[in-house]
Amino acid sequence: MAEPYVNPAELPVKRRENIALGVLGALLFSAAGGLVHFGLLQLGYIAWISALVGMAAGYFGYGLFSGRKNTVHGAILAVVFTMLMIVAAEYFGLAKEIFDAFKETYDIAFRDALGQCERTLRIWCRWNCSDQCDFRAGEYHRSCERFEAAFDADG
Fold first, then answer.
1. Which of 27, 43, 58, 149 sits at 20 to 30 Å (Cα–Cα) from 89?
2. Number of neighbouring beta carbons within 10 Å of residue 118
3. What is the dihedral angle through the alpha carbons of 86, 45, 74, 91, rounded to the nearest 10 degrees?
4. Is the four-CA dihedral 137, 138, 142, 143 of positive or negative sign?
5. Nearest-CA neighbor of 85 among 47, 43, 133, 139?
6. What is the pLDDT of residues 12-68, one digit of tens each?
7. What pTM did the predictor assign?
């Protein structure tokens, strides 16, 4: 019995995976998850859902730009870039908090607030990891004063 004729034009063509373009696509599309995270932070929500949005968007972006869908490379890059974008969104969220707190008093620009993020995080970590951290009702005010003293002494 003879094999049936198959038109070569109807056979599926395997496209080569362009990893460099896939990385770009995953980065750009996971940035959407970072923007969703930043927006939810501004609304006062815990923005865990944005991680799912970022991973799905990054995975889609990798498939769209690389030419191959459902690959391990895409999944790994989507997770990594989503984690980076969430860290960046948290950093920008802290800068926005600093900007909102001090814009009236000190007339600062947003880039000044971005510059203070590292210092604020360093002081917060030093203060929070010490044995001075006691947030019972009577100690809260004194703890805040110690934080402000550490902030003033560092500068």
1. 149
2. 11
3. -10
4. negative
5. 47
6. 767 788 899 999 999 999 999 899 999 998 888 877 888 898 999 999 999 999 988
7. 0.70
